[in-house]
Amino acid sequence: MHTMRGLIAIVGLMAGADGPAWARDIHVNNLAGNDRYLGRQVAPTSDGAGPLKTLRRALAIADSGDRILVANTGQPYRESLSLVGRRHSGSRQRPFTIDGNGALLEGAEPVPETVWQHCHETVYRFQPRDLVYEQMFLHGKPVPRAACRHPDAFPLELGPIEWCLHDGSIYFRTEPYKQPPDYPLAMAARRVGITLFSVEHVEIRNFTIQGFQLDGLSAHNTAREIVLRQITCRGNARAGVSVGGASLVNIENCLLGDNGEAQLLTHPYSRTYVLNSQLLSNTAPAWVDRGGTVFADGKKVEDGLDEWKPAGDSAPDTEDER
């Protein structure tokens, strides 16, 4: 009997060697889910084991090495997420994972029709309640932003269906015989799509992240061994991805474009590896360098890039090489 118990204990230790034994899948569905459920099953069940409704609730019950599986329902997830500390970390063998399955994480909200004030001709304006950086959207796509080359001059130089930020207000020019309520306009309302702080061995994949006031995804500080895979960050008011101090991030097979000030923004003491990814320079520089080290397909690049032209070999595979 003692021999059998010893064998069971050894088997248990071996099973846990590759990662925490309690790691599990947590299912989220913003249409069929309920935050009173347990998140253990893909579909609702009579015993309450069905999917959760929000990603925030999934993170609240998650533990080290768990995997959050997000249903792509065709409806955006209108949330901001923060991953912090050991509970939202993993191991090399079993990273803490959020798989979006192609879902949209949306930071924008409709502009209320009642906020607009007529300025002159077909130009209207309103004052945002919480102005940090800003981005405007029409039919889910960024509205062209005018440069406002002469900000002290008035009236502002705006073409039809263009906007700009001037003296704390947003100005928008309509087409002739139209008013702002004729357009389904939205504006960035939430600060950051996903924030990573003091976590390690995290993988986030298969998401589109758009419409946030600052960044689509921010590895804010001490976010180590982070993998972003098949992520699209677009239409965020500052940066698609921001990598902060002492963070190490791998950006693999991603698309960053249409962001306000930088597609990729890096800060001192960070290290970023970009593999097989596109950083478009359509609205802002591909990479704004405020510090840190960046490798493009294995080749070190420096001083920021207006246009992204990666070349070279693959990035290091082991922590020792880094």
How many helix segments? 2
| Form type | globular
| Rg estimate, integer Å | 23 Å
What is the helix fraction of residues, given as a range?
A: under 10%
Return residue spans where pLDDT drops below 50 for at least 5 consecutive residues. Answer: 6-21, 312-322
Question: Which labels suit this protein?
Answer:
322 residues, Pectate Lyase C-like, 2 domains, eleven-stranded mixed beta sheet, 2 helices, disordered C terminus
Plain-language structure description:
With 322 residues, the protein is mainly beta. It folds into 2 domains: 20-107 and 190-301, Pectate Lyase C-like (3 Solenoid); 109-188, no CATH class. 7% of the residues lie in helices and 38% in strands. It is built from 2 helices and 25 strands. The chain has helices at residues 2-15, 55-61; strands at residues 25-28, 67-70, 81-84, 96-106, 108-110, 117-120, 123-126, 136-138, 141-142, 162-166, 169-173, 185-188, 194-197, 200-210, 215-221, 224-234, 239-243, 248-252, 255-257, 262-266, 271-275, 278-279, 287-289, 293-296, 299-301. The strands form 4 sheets. Strands 1, 2, 4, 14, 16, 18, 19, 21, 22, 24 and 25 form an 11-stranded mixed sheet that branches. A 6-stranded parallel sheet has the order 3-13-15-17-20-23. The radius of gyration is 23 Å and the shape is globular. The chain starts with a helix and ends in a 21-residue tail after the last strand. Mean pLDDT is 88; it is low at 6-21 and 312-322.
